[in-house]
Automatic annotation (TrEMBL):
InterPro entries in alphabetical order: RNaseH-like_sf, ZnF_BED_domain_contain
GO molecular function: zinc ion binding
Source species taxonomy: Eukaryota, Fungi, Dikarya, Ascomycota, Pezizomycotina
Keyword terms of this UniProt record: Metal-binding, Nucleus, Zinc, Zinc-finger
Subcellular location, principal: nucleus
Coiled-coil residue spans: none
GO cellular component terms listed in the entry, alphabetical order: nucleus
Name of the protein in its database record: Uncharacterized protein
SUPFAM superfamilies: Ribonuclease H-like
Length: 493
């Protein structure tokens, strides 16, 4: 049998090698290929050895391809954690070959057995660079904004003699994530309650005066790169959570523990997060949620809760959308829980912790408004996805698109803080939507804090798009060059 095809299937789908030892799997292979003998089916150890052989075989051609590249060799590296909680560092090379074809190649996936410090990451990356003889071909690094990546870049710059700040490219999805989470959760150092207490009850004579007071209050906040809900992983320097795995962002085991109380102070989205934790850790509460859905909407399907994940802001938006969709069921669920508590004596010490997470009417208004505000961020994230390779989409995630997308989002937030956003209606016509209708003054000002915090963080990273790579991507983009040439021809004519 073709062992390489079997190896390709296992590695592509990230399946365990010992799957081939399964009696039923081997029986399936034998049934579908009567000419196959039991001894011809490889064992897991055989496939592991084959993988090592194939990797070593590919190193030579990859090394030659890298050496013949037209461009410099650019790098990305990031952590990944397996389901068995083993940590690895993926190191990718990006370049243009002699035939003008763009490549992305995974050069190495070393295990991270030490603490994920910047120095440890730099050692692994440097070893890979030297192994492929790329010391004199180093281009730019596109990384997320973790502190240990700063340290790693400093170490790599010292070893290979380059300006680390110039060669560091910001990961757009990551700083969009920081901006959105700043908008929804604020800083772990400065929370909404304190800021609202500073000016939320003041009466302002004019809207302009209110905006000035708001800006002054926001600007007093310390710059903090680590916006977001505090998690159990804050002590680790490297984010290693897989995109789809909530388990990689450990949540407190006890619903009413001190750790959960820290989440709640971040406002309505923190409360929704805590509700998700409660549903995940209690089968009784989960059944209450399902029963509440059956009672409030008997003809609609019963849906699971969508829990947010610390590494993806889209999960926060999805959580908010599901909460708004099942708002009546959530309120009914909390009523069921409270009724059960009262029927059992209603002692304060036995009060279910989840009842503290009930959202007020005004908090629901904030969730609904923020969910609307986030829609352009969803569009922007899709625009900036990809490898910068043009295809069926009108955008490809190239650096030349960063400026216009971020500027669009900043304009969007500046308009939103005035209580207006532009939204496409059911007839595909753009129209103004007013965010502050039916909101009391305190809620309106609270929502402005959300928006301003997001704007502040996004503007901070907009100011960091100063590397030559960004400017060159705009100036030397073929479309820009062609437009400038055409303009020149038109002027001469």
């Amino acid at each position: 049998m073709n062992q390489l095809l079997l190896l390709d299937w296992l590695t592509y789908h990230n399946l365990p090698f010992n799957l081939v030892n399964s009696e039923r799997f081997r029986r399936l292979l034998l049934y579908n290929n009567p000419s196959l003998q039991e001894g011809q089916i490889p064992s897991d150890r055989t496939l592991v050895n084959l993988l090592t052989t194939e990797y070593n075989r590919a190193r030579g051609p990859v090394h030659a391809l890298l050496q013949r590249a037209r461009s410099m060799i650019h790098f990305t590296f990031d952590g990944w954690t397996s389901r068995q909680n083993a940590s690895f560092l993926g190191i990718n090379a990006h370049f243009i070959d002699r035939d003008w074809k763009q490549w992305r190649i995974l050069l190495a996936l070393p295990a991270l057995r030490k603490r994920h410090t910047g120095a440890a990451l730099a050692d692994e990356v440097a070893d890979t660079i030297c192994a492929f003889g790329l010391q004199d071909r180093i281009g730019y690094y596109t990384l997320d904004n973790a502190t240990n990546n700063d340290t790693a870049m400093e170490a790599l710059a010292a070893e290979f003699d380059f300006d680390w700040d110039e060669r560091r490219i910001r990961c757009a999805p990551h700083f969009l994530n920081l901006a959105v989470r700043a908008m929804m959760y604020g800083s772990k150092r400065d929370n909404f309650a304190e800021l609202l207490a500073h000016w939320g009850d003041k009466d302002f004579m004019t809207e302009e005066d209110e905006q000035r007071q708001l800006s002054d209050a926001i600007n007093e906040l310390r710059t903090d790169d680590d916006f977001g809900v505090p998690s159990m992983e804050e002590d680790f320097e490297l984010e290693t959570a897989p995109e789809e795995s909530q388990d990689q962002c450990p949540a407190p085991e006890i619903v009413n523990a001190e750790k959960v109380d820290k989440y709640r102070k971040f406002g309505p989205f923190g409360k929704l997060h805590n509700i998700g934790i409660a549903l995940r850790t209690s089968s009784q509460l989960l059944e209450d949620f399902y029963e509440a859905q059956r009672q409030t909407a008997p003809t609609e399907p019963v849906l699971a809760w969508v829990q947010n994940v610390c590494t993806r802001w889209q999960s926060d938006e999805a959580m908010a959308s599901r909460a708004l969709q099942k708002r009546s069921a959530l309120n009914r669920m909390l009523s069921i829980i409270e009724e059960r508590w009262v029927s059992q004596g209603g002692k304060e010490k036995d009060r279910p912790a989840i009842l503290k997470e009930k959202l007020s009417l005004e908090e629901w208004k904030v969730v609904a408004a923020v969910q609307k505000i986030l829609q352009p961020f969803k569009v922007a994230s899709k625009q900036l996805q990809g490898e910068g390779i043009s295809g069926k989409r009108s955008t490809s995630g190239g650096f030349d698109e960063y400026f216009q997308v971020v500027e669009m989002l900043l304009d969007h937030l500046e308009l939103a803080v005035q209580g207006v956003i532009i939204e496409e209606n059911d007839d595909h016509i753009m129209e103004e939507v007013h965010l502050f209708d039916d909101m009391d003054a305190k809620t309106r000002r609270l929502l402005k804090i959300y928006i301003k915090l997001g704007w502040k963080k996004l503007n901070e990273y907009y100011g960091k798009l100063t590397s030559t790579a960004y400017i060159a991507a705009v100036v030397f983009h073929p479309c820009s060059v062609a437009n400038n040439i055409n303009k020149g021809i038109a002027i001469r004519a």
